[in-house]
Amino acid sequence: MTAATVPAAARRVPLTGPARLLRLELRRNPMLWMLPLLAALFWLGVYRPALANPPFWNVRATALQHALLFLGPLLAGVTAWAGSRDGRRGLTDLVGVTAVPRWTGQLASWAAATCWAEAVYLGGVAVVYGITAEQARWGGPLWWPVAVGAAGVATCCALGFAAGALLPGRFTAALAAVVVFLALGGGAFAMQNNNTYAQIWPLDVQGPFPTDSYGIFYPYVPDLAIAQVMFLAGIAVAALGALGQTARAGGRGLRVAAAAVTVAGLAAAGTAVGLAGTARLEAHGIVIPALHDAASDRPVPYTPVCSHAAVPVCLQPAYRGFLPAVSAAVSPTLGALAGLPGAPVRVTQVAVTSVVQGTGNSVGLGGPVVVGRPPVLFLPLAGLPLPGEPGTTATQFTSTLRMQVGPPVLNDLVGLSNSAGLQPGGGPGAVFGQSATSPRTAAQRAVAAALAQDAGLLPALRPASGPRPSGKWQVWPGRGAYLARGQQAAVAVRFAALPAAVRHAWLAAHLGPLRAGRVTLSEIP
Prior knowledge:
Strand content: 5-15%
Oligomer: single chain
Largest sheet: 5 strands, mixed
Radius of gyration: 31 Å
Structural class: alpha+beta
Number of strands: 11
Number of helices: 16
């Protein structure tokens, strides 16, 4: 019986030894003592900013991926301290003669530290997503940003542990933390300088798009996240494989296996960087052709939520809570124009789809536009500071949106171009473009100025009494609107003073000729 049982027990050692070692490392790993600090960092850097924003799944997911910025340097420092433990204490030769290979013991120590770090990160994810599930009006959780964050946590631990094990010293932990911090900051610098390959930066979610512009009207495009997970996993595997190539790591076969692991990790990371180099900005996110799924190009079906005003406002269900504020912003302008030929009959929220590919990576975001028959105002809200965001009240949002919507609507109504017509001003009102005023546009400008005053885009109009300070029609707080001298200013003031019903009736009869430039100043009542 003894001869038969001894080999069986010996065969069980390789299976149970590493598991026992991992259990022991979980109990004595220094990461265990850092859990309160990690939780505090997550609360300050991720939880509070995420919950301070409106409850959109994409906004909260972006914050979770950015957790790496707050946790990564500390994780690298702590694991570097754990990795250098045996070297600092002069125990390298002693642990090298244990039954478990040295590399296996190091992997167990790294795994224990990573488990505790992932527990903090994934626990924070569960809390943030649990609260979002109760607050969000539409949609569901995005898991690829969470996967990138989890891969980043494991990679920071691997880099720190490898640095500590290969270069043990008192200052290794601090240097590892600084290097990881600089690497994250360097990725941001490279992105700002339009470096295509820098898109692999693990804090990048969808390039220059606002965080609330993807994953709502169209599915979240996971191409970049897949490449980032591949990149981070490759770096982690390469760093851990480097530990197994030292003379004390184990036998020759183990060192060969570790070398193969290192090469595989470097190959995966290099492939991911190459894929990032093929990425391009498209209307709904960053697309990598080799990883792209055509299903992500199809819009997400939804039933809009609409107001019951004279000109209804229809929003994507995720923005249901902002419907009253949006209606309050557009109603003063659109309500006064209801029924006029060419005036919008409905407001429909759309995705930000106007993309301009410049040198490197750049994007231009579209604004409000009136198109179609009957005319519809297509309104993107992505990128605007919404009520509930830090520093933004409902009143500020309403005022900002009114100034963005009013000028293009009035310009389109009277036939003015964007360069010559009303434009959102830097102060409390609108301004006119600097294009020279021709007889064709003089009447159009006068009518637009009067309608802008009625919509609250301009204060009470009065003619300018001196030279225009900036060479254009501009609103000055407390001083009224500066208009062109002479008849044009007088006509604008006179038309603005008419009762709203009279103005509406005149516009209904003369809007076509006005748009065509066939109405003169003398014909405006």
